[in-house]
């Protein structure tokens, strides 16, 4: 789970979202007018209306919900023109390698949908917080080896590649989106594992970008690299902001990286496609129950982070 | 061509750089492997279109308030079912009886934009538009109408959706209909036909399904025209179509006294750019770009 990912990426965990993002959430100037209506329409569209069958499957509604939410966020670029300096990239491959206490680890392959931007996100933690992580001790799980459940592979090339060629104008990874859209429950990641996956891939992206910017030598970064991550299964959302402070990952001491996680945010409690009828009386009409606008506000805040 | 509203100030240079960026990302910068089975359209042009339309929509939503309340569908289904003409049942236990000919279109545009308000009409409802050519063969001779399975009418989302009118559809050609194939087989004059056929069929199905969602059918004909637009492309060449549905009454009884006709306007296919090499787009065609932008900026007069 997340604890193992923390050890592998030499990261300190902070619960909740960082203050910079929370300030965007709470700032009424950044709200979209009537956004509750639009988000409810987006959920209804994804969960009820988008198919000729009675109820769409998760494989269908999870990506549709994601597209609709991104569409609503993108329409904010009428207010903030610098939002057009973003580009989504689907089906891109990442490769990053690093050493942790004489174990060579790597993150590779297709992961999720990445949103790139022309400008990097400013560091979320102050310098003091970064220096304070030096005293933090990483949790170990003796006698379990930290690389348990990881796939052992013979690596011939130690590759570090952001997935895009040089000269790409949108060169800074901004947010990674993970959609757990398998129909059957065992094929989907549980929330804890989803958070661990988000952490590993956010770290991989940040590391690849840092190596491109600052070279391959392990060192403490002057300008930390920040990558955000959102994971969802169509209903439950996990939000994460990762800040890479150092590429010196071999030893267990020194400055650590930081991650802020806001987990298990429900966008809505239940989406009833067909009304529940007991003994010829409609007990629960069709519709969305338990809509929580705060979850979308956080989604929007993560989207706007870096431009406002 | 339909007139488009005049935008206050359009950042043309920004538009050009946006289109170039999207194109370069999909063709050059993002390191993808080789296309699977040389299927370029899924590998490059599909993602290019999927990125271009939302990016342009976001760029232009300040100029067109209709886009700000639009809904974007990726690979939706559009279905329409109707009757037209008569035939005699050939074999089976109903042999000899006269049946209406059933048509069903099942379409899967690559992208579509749906809006909550209807686009304005282009010509008045009752105008006289000319004759429609009559074809004597049975429609099942064409590959589109061979067998009719389920009767479905669908615009891309169910009736409860507030965005129930169509704005623009984007169609991507499969690899089978690549231009090189036509040129190799000496069928160059057929290239435009494919674009036109796709435009007319898809737009008829979409506008008629929208009308049916509003409660009109062949016995209760439409009281206002339904207008939608479409862009048909194979990734490089773009053809633009817009369609006005004036009548749904196509069954044998209703078509006798029906003077109204539906009409589709379209352009020829033109390339958006000449070639992409070394990280830059050469020969970006402004005419095609402005056409695309004016399509997206189309909106009812009161907005």
From TrEMBL, chain A:
One GO CC annotation: ribosome
Record keyword Transcription present: no
Location in the cell: Mitochondrion
Main location: mitochondrion
Record key words, sorted: Mitochondrion, Ribonucleoprotein, Ribosomal protein, Transit peptide
Single GO MF annotation: structural constituent of ribosome
Keyword Transit peptide: yes
Classification via PANTHER family: LARGE RIBOSOMAL SUBUNIT PROTEIN ML37 (PTHR15889:SF2), MITOCHONDRIAL RIBOSOMAL PROTEIN L37 (PTHR15889)
Similarity comment: family membership: Belongs to the mitochondrion-specific ribosomal protein mL37 family.
Protein name: Large ribosomal subunit protein mL37
Taxonomic lineage from the root: Eukaryota, Metazoa, Chordata, Craniata, Vertebrata
UniProtKB/TrEMBL annotation, chain B:
GO terms under biological process: translation
Top-level taxon of origin: Eukaryota
GO molecular function, one term: structural constituent of ribosome
GO cellular component terms given for this protein: mitochondrial large ribosomal subunit
Pfam family name, one: PDCD9
Annotated keywords: Mitochondrion, Ribonucleoprotein, Ribosomal protein
InterPro entries listed in its UniProt record: Ribosomal_mL37/mL65, Ribosomal_mL65
PANTHER family the record matches: LARGE RIBOSOMAL SUBUNIT PROTEIN ML65, MITOCHONDRIAL 28S RIBOSOMAL PROTEIN S30/P52 PRO-APOTOTIC PROTEIN
This protein's name: 28S ribosomal protein S30, mitochondrial
